[in-house]
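Sharing a chain and its predicted structure for anyone who wants a worked example. Both blocks are below, sequence first, tokens second.
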Amino acid sequence: MSAKAQFLQKLQDNQPRTDTYASKGQADLATFCQRLGALQENTETWLAETGIRLITRHCALTEMLISNRAFTVPCFELHYENRVVKFTPVFLYGQGVTGCVDVTLAAGEPASALCRLFMRSAESQSWTYTPAHNPGGQRVAFDEEAFFTVIAPLLP
């Protein structure tokens, strides 16, 4: 996350909340959707004038800890030639983390996992990630540098 994005996020976090949610789960879900939107905007900025297409979609996210139903959340894909990197939300709550996104590369069959992003964790309030080859490893900051490291397989 850029210094500007971190600053704006911290500013927003410090503002009094005017939203009222029936539960912490609903508040976390709303925050997850907002942070996914901000991540998509950062991605658009980082990829400006590269020729890589960003396609916005909506995905279903089922979170059994909130209710027994699916929620619509933002997701997006990066397209380059015949290759696609997908950012797909998979769960809201996990052990020590809130808001998980799988990042996968589709360049034929089967798709391959690149990393998992976490909106918030015990270590950080900012986006962090673990590479797919080390899923139990330490989570590290997901910033512009990490973004380009993760999506490098998009290029043949």
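Comments welcome. The beta strands are 53-62, 70-80, 83-94, 97-106, 112-121, 128-131, 140-141.
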